């Protein structure tokens, strides 16, 4: 997920032993400490294979939820699954090396669309569209292609080629402290201008109360992950007629808005605020508003961790001149072109992403990031979040309206995002004006389509 720095641990384990390890543990929130153990698909069962596939996955709640269920797949098919879990960004680095070297060490991988797009452009991924069309290889009922969240599915395709399928999807939304707004008789803002005015009215640093908290720390996955939504809301584009468009009126206005609201109505040291600091500030009841990841709701509604549990409101991102642009951060599963076990890998992907398995993993582990429409609409799933107010409706709607190109699918996004992040952070720190920062971005940042 974009918002989490997972524990830097490497996990190589089989799923049969996972259940035994979990039963002996008081918590199932972390990885097993027994790397290298063997999985237990039953060998020699009639109609089953004795293959083993290797799955490289991100350390993430969606994988934590899937892990205990994989023995069911092994029992059904006889295919053993060796699961290798790595934290972000090591999981991406590992796959990058394997794919570019032509290694056959990965049969099923997992990555975000920015990397998937690059790997697909490099001819390193299997065309899943061909497998989807092959009725001998695909169980249409299990795959249920039309049941995926459409924007997340589209984010993993290009020119009618589906090169990955979404495992999870997250978005951004406006969080607000209901009591603060009610006490001050402030309505929930629906435009960026209204949000600026509401943050100003509710900002009272002498009382330890800030109008808003946003990510100010530089980085493509830090301030730029949130800033991009504001930039697009003002009408900004990363490429216009084949060239950068950062110093446009929209680019300058969006950057000025971002710097002004965070500097004037946010906590001190705005340019050093990361996602964790933003979450902590809001969960402690110190900020009236926050724009950040939809999955933060789990922490905010946990009364053991949060002072605002039961007092959080959720809303779609306020509109700018060009509309509302919530983020779309999805990760998908793919098959490397060099895998020698594509048939077994495809069976695993169909099983892992099936509506049945996704519903079970979501309900049993209270996932807030599912990429299946039927799961979002299932009452047993929605009942998990009954005390979260309108969170489920807002999040479902945001994912459906989010643009698959929220972040541009360019080859050098990481560098572009990091360079932009430094300039936006400088505006927040008041060492550059928005006009100067965007002029510098226009002159110095080169985009490789």
UniProtKB/TrEMBL annotation:
<feature type="compositionally biased region" description="Low complexity">
    <location>
        <begin position="24"/>
        <end position="48"/>
    </location>
</feature>
<protein>
    <submittedName>
        <fullName>Sugar ABC transporter substrate-binding protein</fullName>
    </submittedName>
</protein>
<dbReference type="Pfam" id="PF01547">
    <property type="entry name" value="SBP_bac_1"/>
</dbReference>
<feature type="region of interest" description="Disordered">
    <location>
        <begin position="24"/>
        <end position="49"/>
    </location>
</feature>
<keyword id="KW-0732">Signal</keyword>
<feature type="signal peptide">
    <location>
        <begin position="1"/>
        <end position="22"/>
    </location>
</feature>
<dbReference type="InterPro" id="IPR006059">
    <property type="entry name" value="SBP"/>
</dbReference>
<dbReference type="InterPro" id="IPR050490">
    <property type="entry name" value="Bact_solute-bd_prot1"/>
</dbReference>
